[in-house]
Amino acid sequence: MGISKKDILHLTDLSRLDLTSEEVAKFGDELNDILIYVGKLGEVKTDGVAPMAHVSGQAARLREDEVSGTVPEEGLSLKIAERDACLKAFPERAGDLLAVKSIFAHRSKQKSE
Amino acid sequence: MKLNELTIKQAHVALREKRISPVGLTKACLEEIEKRDGELGAFLSVDSKGALKAAKESEKFLKAGEPRSRLEGIPLAIKDNILVAGQKATAGSRILENYTATYDATVIKRLKDAGAVILGKTNLDEFAMGSSTETSAFKKTKNPYDLDRVPGGSSGGAAVAVSAHLALGALGTDTGGSIRQPASFCGVVGLKPSYGRVSRYGAIAMASSLDQIGPLGKCVWDAAAMLEAIEGSDIKDATSVGEIETVPPELLPPSIEGKRIGVPKEYFIEGMDPAVEKAVRQAINQFQELDAEIVEISLPHTQYALEVYYIIMSAEVSSNLARFDGVRYGTRLAGTTLDEMYRLTRGKLFGPEPKRRIMMGTYVLSSGYYDAYYDKAQRVRTLLRQDFDKVFESVDCILSPTTPSVAFKLGEKIDDPIAMYLSDIYNVSANLAGLPGISLPCGLAHGMPVGLQLMGKPFDEETILAIANVYESKTDWRAHRF
Lengths: 113, 482
Description:
The complex is a heterodimer of chains A (about 110) and B (about 475). The mean pLDDT of chain A is about 80. A two-stranded antiparallel ribbon of chain A has the order 1-2. Chain A is mainly alpha-helical and about 110 residues long. Chain A contains three helices and two strands, in the order H-H-H-E-E. Chain B has helices at about 10-15, 20-40, 50-65, 105-115, 155-165, 180-185, 220-230, 275-290, 305-320, 340-350, 350-365, 370-390, 415-420, 430-435, 460-475; strands spanning about 45, 75-80, 115-120, 170-175, 190, 210-215, 260-265, 295, 395-400, 435-445, 450-455. In chain B, strands 1-3-2-4-6-5-10-11-9-7-8 form an eleven-stranded mixed beta sheet, with helices on both faces. The radius of gyration of chain B is 21 Å and the shape is globular. Helix content of chain B is about 40%, strand content about 15%. Chain B is of the alpha/beta class and about 475 residues long. Chain B is built from 15 helices and eleven strands. The interface between A and B is large, with 54 and 70 residues.
C-alpha cells in the first residue's frame, strides 16, 4: 500500500495545504516510510476488542442549558475587553466585521467534492 | 547562592519569613535571563513589566502575612502553547507569529490567583510536535549541560528555563513525552498528570485525547506544589475530572517501605545506551535499599505503542489544526479565492513537521484507510491500557528509563523522522493509557543527565510523587549550578 504522488496531492486537497514539488516528493517518501512502520499493527489480533477514543470511556458530559446570572460591572468590562481583543486579531476588518473572500462566488480549479 | 537558584520549596519559606522579597526574586530571574538566554534560547518572549507588577502585588500579600498560596511571588515560565491573556501565543509557528492571546488558560488563571509571577513564554517544537525543540519556527534552544546538544522537546524551552535557573518552575504540555523527555535531557523533574487531572482549556490543542499540561521543577516538592495549584475539574474542559484528592507536597510520605515497583522487561531494549541502562539499574538497586519491592512485569503490547501513538496522534492533529486557516486570527496569506487563501496560508506558514502530521492524519482517517489504521489503532490502544490495568493489580507503580539515550546533538535526528520518533518509545504509553508519569534525574551518562520515569495508576499521582520524593531525598542528582 504505497502512497503515490496522486495520493499526496489528494491529501493536500483534503487538508487545504499547498506544497511545493520538492515537498510533494519528500513527504511522499517520508509518509511511505512511516506507513510501513505503523503497518505492523496489522499483525495484532483485535477481534472483539472495543476501540478506545477516550481513556475513561467517558461519553460527552452534559449540563443544563442555563443562562448564567446578571453580568456584574467588572464582568461586563472583561467581556468588552475580550471582544475588542478578538476584533483586533482579525487579519482583515471592515469596521467590526471580519472580512473574507466570498464563499460562493468562486471555485478553485480542483473538482469540487 | 543567587536568588534565582532557589527551589520553590526554599523560596516560599524565605518569602514568608521575609528574608527575601518577591521583587528581588523576580529581578534575579530577569537578570539571569538577560545574561544567559541569548545563548540558551529558552524564551520566545519575556514580560518584565508584567512580571515586576505581579511581584509587587505579591509583596503586599506577603507583607500582610497572607500569602495566597505556596506559589505567592514565585517566578514561573510558561510554554508558548498555553495562553496568557495579552501576551503572544505562537505555538512556535509562523502561522501564529503575531497572535496575541485574548484570554487566560484556566491553569494560568489559577496560577495568577495563587500569586505566581509569569516571566514569559518558552520555546517549543512547532505546535508541540517534536522531541528536540528544533522544529520551532523561531529559534533553537540549547541544552545548558552542553550547548551543542538539544534540550529535548517539545517543552525544551521550559526544561531549560528550570535547569539553567532562569525561572523557579515552568509549565509544559505532554502529548507523547513532551514534558518528561526534555526534563530527562536537562536534569530536572517533569510531571505529566493523569489525563483529565488538569484542565486543557487555553492550551493550544495538539491531540485532544492525549494532551496534558504539567509542571517542570527543580525538585519533586516543586512539581507537586505547581500541580496542586493547577489541577482540578474545570467547567470549561469537559474532559477534566471532578473529584481529585490533592496532594500537598508537605504531606508526601517519608518512606516507601513495601511499595511494589514494577520493571517492565520490554523496556530494556537493544539499542539502549548502556550508560543509561547502568544509571537506571543503579536506581533500581537504590529503591531496594529503601525497602521497596522490585517486581519484574510484562507489558506485552509495548512493541506497538509508538505505532498506535503515531496513528491516533496524527489523526487528532489533522483535526485540531484545521482551525488554523487565516480566517479569524493569526497570519493570513490572501489569495484570489477563499480556497487559495486556506492553501497558501497553511502551506506557507506551517513548518514541515505539522504538515507531515496533518497529511498522515488525513490519510489514516480517509475513506478506505480508516479501518486499517485509525480503527485498528484505537483497538490496540485498548489492549495497551489492559496491559497496564492487569499489571497494576500487583504493583503500585512502574519504573523505566525516561529515554533510551541522553540528549543528542543538534541536527543529528532532524532529517530522520523515524529516528526522532523512537526517542519517545518509553513515554507514549502513559499518554495512550491516560496514566500519570514523572521523570526525575537519576545520574549522568557521558556527562549528560539521565532520567528515571515512574508511571502510576490513574489519578494516583500521590504514589509516584511519594516514591520520587523519597528517592530524590536519598540521592544527589539535582539541577546543577552553571
